[in-house]
Each structure stands twice: as C-alpha cells, then as structure tokens.
Amino acid sequence: MAEIIQRDGTWTFDGETLRLVPGRDKGVHLLRKSLGELTVPLRALAGISFEHGRKSGRLRLRLRDGADPLLQATAGKLTEGADPYQMTVESDRYGVAEYFVDEIRNALLLEQVPTSACTSYVLPGPPVPLSVSAGDGTASFDGERIRLEWNWKTEDAKASSGTRLLALGDVTAVEWQPALGLENGCLRFTVRSSPTKAPPKYDPNSIELWGFKKDPLMALVAAAVQARLPHPAAASAPAAHPAPSAPSAPSALDKAPAAPAAPEPAPPAEDDHDALLRRLRELGELHQAGILTDEEFTAAKQAVLKRL
User: Fold this and answer.
1) Cα(18)–Cα(116) distance, rounded to whole angstroms?
2) Residue 80 to residue 260: CA distance in whole angstroms
3) How many angstroms separate the CA atoms of 47 and 147, rounded?
4) Tens digit of pLDDT for each residue in 248-266?
5) Closest Cα to residue 141, out of 241, 44, 223?
6) Using CA atoms, how far apart are residues 163 and 119, in angstroms rounded to an integer?
7) SS3 (DSSP) at 213
8) From CA 279, how far away is CA 86, in angstroms rounded?
9) 152-179, pLDDT tens digit by residue?
10) Nearest to 125 by CA among 220, 61, 230
11) How far apart are CA 1 and CA 14, in angstroms?
12) Residue 3 pairs with which residues in a beta bridge?
C-alpha cells in the first residue's frame, strides 16, 4: 500500500483503489471539504503526475474522459484548490510523492487500464439529497426533482415566476459556470419544454452566481444531476443500421469465404523480477536517506514482495 499524508489531505492506494481524503486545514477549499472522501477505482484513471516547486509541489490525477460526473459538469473550470484530484505536497515529502506516482503508474501498466474515454460514469457523483444556497437562490436535488428557490437579491422578473420544480426527466443538460472577472457565473438547467437563451439573471431555470465563497458548491448540484442524465457517450454513439425488410438476392460477396478469425491476444507478460528487485533497492535507499518512514518503507516493501 502507498500513502501520502499532508495538511492538504491524505491519498492512499491499495493497488486497486485510490482513497482521497481532504485535509482539515483551514486552507483546504470548501468544495473539497463538502465533497468529502472519494473512492476512485484504478480503471477510472488515465494517469498521474507530480510537479516540483520551490516551496511545494502538486500531485495531479488525470481521470479518463467521461469517468466522473463532477468533471463532466464543471468542464475544466474548477480552480486548483477546488479540484479534488489535486493535492499540495510539502517539499520534505517529494520522495514519497514520487514513489506514490510510480506505484500508480506501475499498476496502470500491469492492469493495462485504457486511456480512452469511458462510455459510462465510473464514479457515482455527490450523494443526494443536497441543497446549496448561493448567488440569487437555492438549488436542491433529491435524485428525482430539482427545486429552485429565490432570495431577496433575485431579479423581480425571475422571482415573479415563483419556486421552480423541475423533474429530472425534463432536464436535457446542466451547466455550471464560475464567475470570472466582471462576468457572473451560473448554474443553468436546460429544460425540454422551455428552452431559453435569456441571461441567468432573468432565466427562471438558472441561478446567477457572483463569485462568493459558496459559489463552487453549486458544482456539486450540477454533478449530482449530471450523474443521472444520459452519459455523453450515449448521445454521440452512432445509430444502429435498420435491418432490411426482405432478403435480397445472393451476390458475389455472399459467396466469398469468411475472413479468418482474429488471433486471441497473447496473455500479459509477468512482472519483470529484475525491475522489482531494483525497486526494492530504491526503497531501501529512500529509507536510509530518511525520505521514507519505517511504516512507509515496510508497506512499500510488502507491496513489491507480493509481485515477486
């Protein structure tokens, strides 16, 4: 098992699953604290990297496209601090971070995890029911219905329509946009029966966001809804060709011999024992240098020995 513990959080990898726990430090982003612990299967990952810095580094997980409804709903607009798949690493733990990266990369290679896009969500999204108040209203979602309620800051033209109740089956898309500079953000639902291009300030199916502390929490509502909408891969899949209504006359192609069956894929090669022995030596050097603690060294050594 590989583990790295920082003020920013704790990441643990058991060979099959990553467990991401946000830290309790006051500097940890509110979105990550509200989202809580995440369990990420290895098959959801496309890669991992570690970036060195003068005072601190950064671990970054890269998920496969379409694996997580939160990343799908936010479309790369989360800040570094709010992104649950990034963690700040203090300079004295750089060796542990590099070891952590090696363990996950080795597992991705051994398990032959593809980097292609997922055809269904691997992660479940935020749990429901949930409710968030920010901007000019409150968005609540119980898994079946979305409730939008307005506050005293809501534009009169929108507030006059009253509380909105949207059935999940009527929602075709959800969009979350953070406030950037002088441009306000929004949580917007596209409803099949009443599509609109009105600005969020006037759209009764949108909550306008002004860049305050709780704005990113609206991304949790967006992700919970996104997890229950059809996966984007389903919308882009090619339509099946209709079957012919009647058999046609045999052609030359019908009489052609069948193509030979494709050969079965060769079984994956076993672990390279020389590489594993080199890994043991590297771990011993990291332990002697004080980079790995006794507990970290023991856990890492056991993980390597299991593969011999």
Assistant:
1) 19
2) 51
3) 37
4) 444 433 444 444 444 444 4
5) 223
6) 35
7) coil
8) 26
9) 999 998 999 899 999 999 999 999 999 9
10) 220
11) 5
12) 12
